[in-house]
């Protein structure tokens, strides 16, 4: 992995955190299902790199990761597909990588009417079942059964925080789909005046090929140093979760498992092409440290996004009032389809927090209430 980052850093001025994520993703996609932890956990991961448009070289990071994986013979799934074409592709190639320069648009397509249930299917496939079956209608409206054996899906995508804020739904976060992602945040580097020459090193390609031959069922037994290290980290992490906000709990629960996935990948990185039966304490420590890092990133992202539906409703109402000072309740409700009691709660919150002022205008009939922003 350090070799990948060293090479990539000379190829692009993308943040080093993004490049390290690319290395981790390439290893995850290369290992596949032939390496398993305690006969139940596979090291597939989903990573979302988040940053500003253009400046952070998100698409470049995705592109070079995709390209080196392709050269190493790793299956790359199309980034534009329908559920039916996806199932057909998975039946033929059940293991592979989604390399998505526009993760936001891809996630948005999962919310369209023709993709109903697809997001739930992806959530189930993340857990690498032995077999996955699904009935879908094809373009001729004929019901077809798709049978996918030994699926293994990795996702490496890029997006902006603004897209997430505007499009991610509460059920994505609370329902288990989004918590399967680890968020990658980057520190901008000094830009290259002229883009460096892009040449894929043959030794890195061969390394990924050797990683793809790593196999085994790694066991972690009570009494092992690595077992004690993870147990100690796990107990401390659980205590940390007790004081976290409820919207972080699904992410924390997934990161506990992700720590073991990372550890398996670090062990494969130390022993490419070998048959593994145990895991070193060093790999467990590295996996736990990376899990802590990703949990901090999740806290930062969720604080910026504000996944509470109530907060989103308040923000939408506030925007309407700011755009049209003096707007009435009737006109607000025409633009925001919510129950009246939810509207009343939101207006009370906005008023009490000093963001909105309500004025009653008396006249014939009921008094009219108009709302103004508190500037």
Which tags fit this structure?
Arc Repressor Mutant, subunit A; 11 strands; globular; 3-stranded antiparallel sheet; 50% helix; 375 residues; 4-stranded parallel sheet; Rossmann fold; single chain
Describe this entry's structure for a reader.
There is one protein chain. The protein has 375 residues and is α/β, with parallel strands linked by helices. It has two domains: 2-215, 3-Layer(aba) Sandwich (Rossmann fold), CATH 3.40.50; 309-373, Arc Repressor Mutant, subunit A (Orthogonal Bundle), CATH 1.10.10.10. 50% of the residues lie in helices and 15% in strands. It contains 15 helices and eleven strands. The strands form four sheets. Strands 3-6-2-7 form a four-stranded parallel β-sheet. Strands 9-11-10 form a three-stranded antiparallel β-sheet. A hairpin with a 6-residue loop joins strand 10 (356-361) and strand 11 (368-373). The protein is globular and about 85 Å long. The termini are far apart.
Briefly say what this structure is.
The protein has helices at residues 2-11, 16-31, 58-71, 83-92, 103-109, 118-126, 161-167, 170-174, 202-211, 225-242, 249-270, 281-305, 309-323, 329-335, 340-352; strands at residues 35-37, 46-50, 95-100, 131-137, 143-149, 152-159, 181-185, 216-218, 327-328, 356-361, 368-373.
Topology:
Layout: H1 2-11, H2 16-31, E1 35-37, E2 46-50, H3 58-71, H4 83-92, E3 95-100, H5 103-109, H6 118-126, E4 131-137, E5 143-149, E6 152-159, H7 161-167, H8 170-174, E7 181-185, H9 202-211, E8 216-218, H10 225-242, H11 249-270, H12 281-305, H13 309-323, E9 327-328, H14 329-335, H15 340-352, E10 356-361, E11 368-373
Parallel strand pairs: 1-8, 2-6, 2-7, 3-6
Antiparallel strand pairs: 4-5, 9-11, 10-11
């Amino acid at each position: 992995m350090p070799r990948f980052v060293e090479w990539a850093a000379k190829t692009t001025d993308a943040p080093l955190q993004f490049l390290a994520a690319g290395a981790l993703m390439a290893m995850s996609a290369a290992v596949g299902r032939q390496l398993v932890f305690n006969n139940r956990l596979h090291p597939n991961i989903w990573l979302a790199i988040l940053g500003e448009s253009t400046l952070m070289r998100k698409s470049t990071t995705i592109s070079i990761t995709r390209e080196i994986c392709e050269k190493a013979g790793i299956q790359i799934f199309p980034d534009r597909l329908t559920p039916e074409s996806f199932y057909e592709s998975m039946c033929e190639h059940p293991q592979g990588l989604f390399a998505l320069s526009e993760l936001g648009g891809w996630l948005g397509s999962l919310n369209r009417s023709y993709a109903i249930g697809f997001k739930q299917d992806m959530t189930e496939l993340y857990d690498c079942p032995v077999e996955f079956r699904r009935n879908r209608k094809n373009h001729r409206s004929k019901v077809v059964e798709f049978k996918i054996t030994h699926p293994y899906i990795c996702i490496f995508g890029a997006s902006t925080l603004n897209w997430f804020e505007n499009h991610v739904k509460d059920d994505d976060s609370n329902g288990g789909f989004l918590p399967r992602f680890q968020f990658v945040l980057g520190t901008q580097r000094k830009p290259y005046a002229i883009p460096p020459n892009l040449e894929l090193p043959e030794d890195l390609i061969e390394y990924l090929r050797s990683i793809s031959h790593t196999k085994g069922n790694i066991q972690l037994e009570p009494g092992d140093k690595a077992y004690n290290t993870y147990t100690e980290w796990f107990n401390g992490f659980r205590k940390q979760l007790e004081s976290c906000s409820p919207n972080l709990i699904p992410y924390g629960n997934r990161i506990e498992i992700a720590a073991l996935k990372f550890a398996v990948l670090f062990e494969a990185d130390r022993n490419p092409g070998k048959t593994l039966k145990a895991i070193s304490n060093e790999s467990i420590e590295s996996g736990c440290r990376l899990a802590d890092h990703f949990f901090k990133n999740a806290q930062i992202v969720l604080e910026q996004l504000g996944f509470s539906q109530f907060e989103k409703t308040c923000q939408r109402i506030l925007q309407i009032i700011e755009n049209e000072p003096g707007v009435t309740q009737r006109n607000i409700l025409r633009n925001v389809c919510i129950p009246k009691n939810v509207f009343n709660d939101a207006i009370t919150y906005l008023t009490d927090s000093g963001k909105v002022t309500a004025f009653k205008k008396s006249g014939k009939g009921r008094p009219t209430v108009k709302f103004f922003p508190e500037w």
